[in-house]
Each structure stands twice: as C-alpha cells, then as structure tokens.
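Subject: sequence -> structure tokens, single chain

Hey, anyone have a minute? Need the predicted structure for the following. Not urgent.
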Amino acid sequence: IAITLTLWSPVTNAAQINFTPSAFSSVEYNDNIFLDSENENSDYITRAGIGLRGEILWQKASVILDYKPSYQWYKDENDQDYWRHEASGNARFDFTRNTRMDLRNTYLRTSSPTDESDYVNEDAPLDGRDVEKYYQNVATVRLDHQFGERDNVYLAGRYSRLRNVNASTNSNREENDIYTPSAGLAYWFTHQWGTELEGLYSHRDLSNSNN
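Reply:
Had a minute. Here:
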C-alpha cells in the first residue's frame, strides 16, 4: 500500500516534497531458526510493519529519508519476538554539472542472524550469530567528477559499526568497526581502448565477547 503526496512549485529553485506512507506484512516458514546444525528448530514467523519515505528534491540537490519499523513474532518461540528497525538517509549535491557528492547512512536493528536487508554489511556476514539483538550502522560518502564522455574519477569513504544490544555474557558475540577508503579512475584513450582502476583499503577492529 503506497500513497504519494506531492507539494510542488513551478519556480525553478523551489523544492519538490514527496511523502510516501506504506504498510506491509509477510509470513515465513523457517526450518532452522537458530542456525544450529545439531538441534534444528522450525517455526512460522509473521512480520508486519509500516513505512514512511520523505523526499525533498531541488534542481541540484536532494534529501531522501526512509524509516520502516516492524514487529516480528514466532508461533512457538514467543520469547524470540522482537521489534525490527531499519532506516536510511541519502543526500546528493551537484557542485557543478560534472562534479557530484553523495552521502548515505543506513541503520538496522534486528535479532535475525541472516537478515536480508540491504543494510547488512557484506564485508562482515552475520551467518551463525546467536538470535539476539544487535544494530549495524553504515555511513558512506562519495565524490565523483566526470571529465570526459566516459572518463571519471571518484573518492569515497565508508564506515561500518556493529554492536550487540543486551547480549548474554556467555554467547559468542562479535562486534566490529570497519573503515574503508577507496578511489577509482576511468580513462578512455579512444572508443575501443581505455583503462579503469579502482583501489580500496579496509581497516577492521574486531572484538569477541569470548576472546
């Protein structure tokens, strides 16, 4: 269910403002909710939630905010019921026709060890985590400059933070901070010949409650 309300002005420098509320629900059957290879537990999981997306659009900039809280409950394992929160913010600014900056921040608070949200950091998979609350925040910034039809250069930075929330002291709980600066260059000498270079550095601070 989605409804879009648009406030718009024909003036060139005026902002276009959009609000999109939504509602969603799903039912899932999982044959191993704790990811335990020796003691598998199956259950039906129901999820329901609402969402709100807000957009402010200018000619050379934009701000987009998303928030989707939802509640997830189990048919048998009632003690595993929890609230799930996911939110994101995106901002774009065009300094010139060929130079652009993008900012993005995503936040996920969940209890699922295999949450399929886009906010999960692919650099640090969560498979095998205990089903306990944790949150992950990922912030990125990227500056792009295009100086030819297919020629461009970019600088970017990414910071990911994962923390446990009310984790038990005897569980195997990993927390991490990941810093990833990167840069890239694409330059084409002709329409047939060119080069594209990319590089990144990843610094990871990892900690484990049992080590």
